[in-house]
Amino acid sequence: MMVAALPSCNPLSRSSLHELATVSQAILDVMPTALYVCSADGTILRYNRRAAELWGRTPRLGEPNERYCGSFRLYHLDGRALAHADTPMAQVLRTGEPAHGLEVLIERPDGSRCIALAQIEPLLDERGGVLGAINCFQDISDRKAMETELRHSRQDLEDFFENGAVGLHLVGADGTILRANRAELELLGYTADEYIGRKISEFHADAPVIEDILRRLSRGEKLDKYPARLKARDGSIRHVLITSNVHFRHGEFRNTRCFTVDVTDQHRADEALRESQQRLAVTYEKAPIGIAEMDAAGRFVRVNAALSVIIGYAPEELLGRSFIDLTHPEDRDDDTERYARQVRGEIAHYSTQKRFLRKDGRIVFVNVLSSSVLDQHGRFRYGVRVVQDVTERLRAEERLRESERHVRELLDALPAAIYTTDADGRITYYNQAAVAFSGRTPTLGSDEWCVTWRLFTPDGTPLPHDQCPMAVALKEGRPIRGEEAIAERPDGTRVPFIPFPTPLRDASGRIIGAVNMLVDITERKQAEEHQRVLIDELNHRVKNTLATVQSIAIQTIRTSPDLKIFSENFEARLLSLSKAHELLTRRAWTGVNLRDIVCQELEPYDDGSATRVRLDGLDLTLEPRIGLALSLVLHELTTNAAKYGALSTGQGLVTVRWSAPESGPPDVLRIDWIESGGPTVKPPAKRSFGTRLIERSMTKDLQGVARFDFDPAGLHCTLELPLHQL
């Protein structure tokens, strides 16, 4: 206490420091805080018992190796080692400045550690020189542990608030949202900036609800699962349950704490259940078939209007009566016995057809489906019976049987081949047209599936009778349509036909047989074959033409600098192709004369004087494909001559010769295009589109070759193609 009372501003003499060092050890040891005194060079002069306890050791006084601090080891709070020469005491001795509130980690020789808070004052002489320093320090480990625990608790609380699975928000006394956790924001789809700081009433869909909530909370009431509707950012409505109370501080309203549980899905499920129950109730009452609930004794406990109409009694007249009383006497035993088994749990449901005795005395035929509703233990609770009036249907079946005789007479008079079979495929009837179609007389009851002798698929594969369309229709219980087959008669002739097998059913829907009509399609097949040949030829021609037009368009657009030039070039080439088609059409696409193609291209420039155009060659007929390709080649040569060559002047001449050359391969047709009298010809710097089109057509379409000689006197182009294409 004496040392701590010495302020750093009071200078000491060296004798005073000596006196301080000789203070009674007993006085130092009774001080409640640890302290020690160092000389200017850091040598420990004195320390008390509390300091030794915190150090866990008793350093020797005046020992040169024991400087600045008596601790075994020192560390920064972050775990980094702290050398004794770098301790706060060493810094105070070097600077002469006090150090207050410094925290260090002390390690004792036994490995235990504590955190110490140091308060160090320098001891100065009259001139301000450092004589030494005194360090009063205390163990603050418990306080630091409490601070750490408090910090962790706050972090846990913050984590609970922010990452809780339930929406949570705080609202101030004025209704402003102070905080909201992630679950709350995700529930409504807002960002924190969009939600926090705004009035909570802005997000409630029902103003009276939020007003009531805030009013109750302001009175200190607690809310438990208060239903409300909140507006989400996407415009949807979220149904929630709010649990909330108020945080008061010194009697003052600080904020509310509101937990928001999303029950939108549950609300929708409840709504769906209510709607389902309403629909079920409406269906029950408005259903066109009778529905009744029965107790274990078979008494009506609930009936709908349709059942009342079927039986002829008002609903109140049926309640409490047994269905057995209303059943025809001949049908009572079976229905009674089966319902008793259902009540005992031996069967879950059953169906039966029986007769009811109406109140007006008439008899009504009904189909009854009886099922059970069980309790949670699986025991019979009540029965549900669905009753359908089939009186008219049974009468209709009787009328149908009567009409079958008339139908059979009608079938015998029809010209189409018709026959019937039983459910197993055995032939039960055929008309005379079927005999004529099959070329034989079938045997009733033994022949199966088909009246024909042999069957084949359209591609000629044998078709067993048990796999024919009639067999498939009976086995699968459905009509077969669109199938084709070929029938072979005993004399070997074959007839293509389409069968129309249709299963026949009785009143209960059971298949009892089938009827089949065989339609001879010989004439249709012949017409289809003729049509196919024509379509194939048309497809071939159209595809070739479209491919050519596509190629012309692609190449033209690549070489046309603007739309106008493209339009002019493309139109000219299509016109040339069109003219070639016209030549082919005149000869019904059987071929085209080479001379006609050349004349057609050069016609605008030929005045008949042989001074502008000269042709020399035999009449040769080319097949349509070759003629079209060659017309495009000649069109490009003509266009080039008209723009840049012999036809661009009034004195130019174009000569076209074709023949099989005397020397060279004898199977090659040679066409020479020779220009003269035009502008001087220079070899082009690059290949033009026309050149590429000519070369492509000659190589790809004509399997030939094109050679260009850019003679200054005029272009000379030689075309060679195989003669077998003529």
Describe the structure.
The protein is an alpha+beta fold and 726 residues long. Strands 17, 18, 19, 20, 21, 22 and 23 form a seven-stranded antiparallel beta sheet that branches. It is flat, with a radius of gyration of 56 Å. Residues 1-10 have low confidence and may be disordered.
Are there runs of 5+ residues with pLDDT below 50, and where?
1-10
The termini sit apart by: 132 Å
Average of pLDDT: 84
The biggest sheet, with number of strands, parallel, antiparallel or mixed sense and barrel status, is: 7 strands, antiparallel
Shape: flat
Strand % is: 25-35%
Helix content: 25-40%
C-alpha-based Rg, rounded? 56 Å
Question: Structural class of the helices, strands and pairings?
Answer: alpha+beta
Give the number of helices. 20
For the secondary structure, the number of strands is: 30
Search tags:
disordered N terminus, 726 residues, 6-stranded antiparallel beta sheet, 20 helices, alpha+beta, 7-stranded antiparallel beta sheet, 36% helix, 30 strands
Write the layout of secondary structure elements.
Blueprint: H1 14-21, H2 25-29, E1 34-39, E2 44-47, H3 49-55, E3 73-75, H4 88-95, E4 99-107, E5 113-124, E6 130-139, H5 141-163, E7 167-172, E8 177-180, H6 182-188, H7 192-195, H8 207-218, E9 223-231, E10 237-249, E11 252-262, H9 264-286, E12 290-294, E13 300-303, H10 305-311, H11 315-318, H12 332-343, E14 349-357, E15 363-374, E16 380-389, H13 391-413, E17 417-422, E18 427-430, H14 432-438, E19 454-456, H15 469-476, E20 485-488, E21 494-499, E22 502-505, E23 511-520, H16 522-559, H17 563-586, E24 592-593, H18 594-602, E25 613-617, E26 621-622, H19 624-643, E27 653-659, E28 668-676, H20 689-701, E29 705-711, E30 714-722
